[in-house]
Automatic annotation (TrEMBL):
InterPro entries: AH/BAR_dom_sf (IPR027267), BAR_dom-cont (IPR018859). SUPFAM superfamilies: BAR/IMD domain-like (SSF103657). The lineage of its organism: Eukaryota, Fungi, Dikarya, Ascomycota, Pezizomycotina. It comes from the Eukaryota. This is BAR domain-containing protein. CDD domains: BAR_Gvp36 (cd07600). The gene is GVP36. Pfam families: BAR_2.
Length: 319
């Protein structure tokens, strides 16, 4: 610490007009950290309050984006423990069901199920994975049934319908993700990486201006002290020194006002809340579509189950 103190004293005594403003700020900042400076110019309470609010807003954006950025990754809910082949991902469920509907034999059905893939692989989402597993399971049951058996296996029928429904839900999820990316993520990333950065830059300018002001005051006090006078006696300052300090004070006040204006603009903009409303709207639309699809499917599956129960009882009674 003695070496640091000696460094501070040497700097003060060697101070002259050739020192650049950046060097002045850097040296004064070091001396502040070492406790070798006098009074530090205080920032207005309003400014300090705005800084706290801006810091909070930045943290809010970072927290939400850390989670919601998952919407930009298609496979964020794709099961990590399953393995699907290129053929599995080759065609949509609706395409496969359409091809299977025209098959008149098990061989044709197998050919339709393993038809050459389309150019674009099918999405890797949880719902699409369920759909592919359900349709594959339906075909396994169909192929295991004796040739010419009638009526159709109810579970196989139900799984095929379920597969089609899950594909629709998966497509609704992808539509939701696109909306979230364009209407929420884009907006919040702009606020974080642009608007809040403007505020941070303005705050850095304020800090630089404050350090320049305090460094200038310290230099002038050192000059007064070097003449054997009281460094705290402002009347001992020359007119030139007073003018220089006043110019730095005016610059500091200007930077503070500019930074306050920028921070208020960032805090008052309605964009973050509007973007959040868009996020909720996208989620609502997805869940609404999912509800509609499953609400349409449920009665059909329920009826299959009721019919199978009746057939089961009938067969037991006749046994």
């Amino acid at each position: 610490m003695d070496k640091f103190a000696a460094f501070g004293k040497n700097v003060s005594s060697a101070w002259n007009s050739t020192v650049t403003p950046f060097a002045q700020r850097s040296i004064h900042s070091v001396k502040e950290q070492l406790g070798q400076t006098g009074d530090k110019t205080q920032l207005p309470p309003e400014y300090v309050e705005l800084e706290k609010r801006v810091d909070a807003l930045k943290e809010v954006h970072q927290k939400l984006l850390a989670v919601t950025n998952q919407y930009s990754k298609e496979a964020y809910d794709y099961p990590p423990n399953i393995q699907e082949s290129f053929t599995d991902l080759g065609r949509s469920i609706s395409d496969k069901v359409s091809l299977l509907s025209h098959a008149s034999s098990p061989a044709e059905a197998q050919a339709a199920f393993t038809a050459p893939p389309t150019a674009k692989p099918q999405p890797k989402t949880f719902n699409h994975a369920i759909a592919r597993a359900a349709l594959s399971s339906s075909q396994l049951l169909q192929h295991s049934s004796p040739v010419g058996q009638s009526p159709e296996d109810p579970l196989a029928n139900a799984l095929e319908k379920y597969a089609l429904a899950q594909e629709k839900v998966g497509e609704a999820r992808l539509a939701q993700d696109q909306q979230v990316q364009s209407r929420f993520l884009a907006g919040w990333n702009t606020t974080l990486n642009t608007n809040l950065q403007f505020a941070a830059k303005a705050r850095r300018s304020v800090e630089a201006s404050r350090l320049t002001l305090d460094a200038t005051k310290a230099a002038k006090r050192s000059q007064v002290q070097a003449r054997g006078m009281n460094p705290d006696d402002e009347t001992a300052l020359s007119e030139e020194a007073r003018a220089e300090i006043e110019a730095k004070e005016d610059e500091f006040v200007s930077q503070v006002e500019e930074a306050q204006s920028v921070m208020k603009n960032v805090l008052d903009t309605p964009e973050p809340l509007r973007n959040l409303a868009d996020l909720i709207a996208a989620q609502l639309e997805y869940h609404k579509k999912s509800y509609e699809v499953l609400s349409e499917l449920a009665p059909y599956i329920d009826q299959l189950q009721v019919d199978q129960e009746a057939e089961y009882r009938k067969s037991r009674e006749g046994a």
